[in-house]
Amino acid sequence: MRKLFSSQLIEARHEMLSIFEAIDLTLHDAVSAFSSNDRNLAKKAQNACASIDARSANLEAVCYNLIATQSPVASDFRLLQTIIYVNFNLQRMSDKVRRIARAARHKVKFDIELPEELVDLIDREAECVYQVLGASASALVSSDLGQIMGLSDQDEAVRSIYAKFFREYNRMNAEDMADDSALDDLRRVIMVSRYLDRIAAISTDAAFRVTFLLTGQRLSATDLMDTDEDELEGMRVPAGEGVTLNPERDARYVAALAPDEVGETLAALMADAEADTTE
Questions:
Q1: What is the pTM for the complete model shown?
Q2: Which residues, other chains included, contact 34 with Cβ-Cβ below 8 Å and sequence gap of 6+?
Q3: CA-to-CA distance for 15 and 252, rounded, in angstroms?
Q4: Taking Cα atoms as reference points, which of 65, 69, 45 lies closest to residue 57?
Q5: Quick one: which of 40, 34, 43, 172 has its CA closest to 112?
Q6: 83 in Cβ contact with 209 (< 8 Å)
Q7: Which helix (H) or strand (E) holds 164?
């Protein structure tokens, strides 16, 4: 029974990573649809989000069933708590991706033309968000506490562009809009920048929860800023039999992510995983 339980824990962790991968890839589609006015790609992204939501709901049910039937203790219980928390945040991210895809379809349907500088800022913000998601995925796979500590700096780059986007928007002359309806359409569309900002923040928050899995302590971003890496490593607690953290194997479940977005460590693991499957 315990071997089966350990196997189920590993499967749940892998599904969590696979859902993270799906959200990242769907975000790329949603942003591309927005920038290129591709209504079909936007619809594809919306459908993908529906599938992601169903997978997340199933993963949540699996985790609660394991808690109810297996009475996990210590690190096994922390792993399940971590998966549930990360999964909850994945659902929040999926909602924001769906909203971006919906904004893309709205932009095409009503033929909304944004100033070129605003579209460029959306693309630049999205590139920063991809880096945050890549770093978060790497932290989830590698369980590297030092890497987790650096996530806040990457999230700050997103916030900087987000602030710049709205400074540019505020300079626009609202009188150029034909009517209140047109202005409302524009406001719906520019919320894409806000959704991107939230996706980066939620992704970072999800990755921070790995510190609970590894240390047993609920450390916030502020706590991590006040703690050096050696001190954080000293907080590690032993992993139980069921918590089998294997970055080489786990990398297979995020292997579709762009190597230039996940950092050298995860990119190398992904390359090794791909080499293993082709041999």
A1: 0.91
A2: 42, 100, 101, 103, 104, 107, 122, 192
A3: 11
A4: 65
A5: 34
A6: no
A7: helix 151-171
Please say whether the beta carbons of 248 and 266 come within 8 A.
Answer: no
Per-residue pLDDT tens for 137-196? 999 998 877 788 778 788 888 989 999 888 887 776 555 555 666 667 677 778 999 999
Q: What are 229's two structure tokens? A: 């890496």
Nearest to 240 by CA among 77, 76, 84, 6: 76
**Residue 65 structure tokens:** 């069933």
Whose tokens are 């033309």? That residue is 113
Query: What average pLDDT does the segment 258-263 reach?
Result: 94
Burial of 100 (0-12, 13-18, 19+ CB in 10 A): buried
Report the alpha-carbon distance of residue 163 to residue 197 in Å, rounded: 10
Burial class (CB in 10 A: 0-12, 13-18, 19+), 54: exposed
Nearest CA to 101 among 47, 57, 55?
47
- Report the chain's C-alpha Rg in angstroms: 20
> Contact at 8 Å (CB) between 149 and 33?
no
Distance CA(201)–CA(248), nearest Å, equals 27
The SS3 of residue 141 is: helix
Residue with tokens 């080499």: 275
Q: Kindly give, in sequence order, each residue whose CB lies less than 8 Å from that of residue 102, ignoring residues fewer than 6 positions away.
A: 42, 46
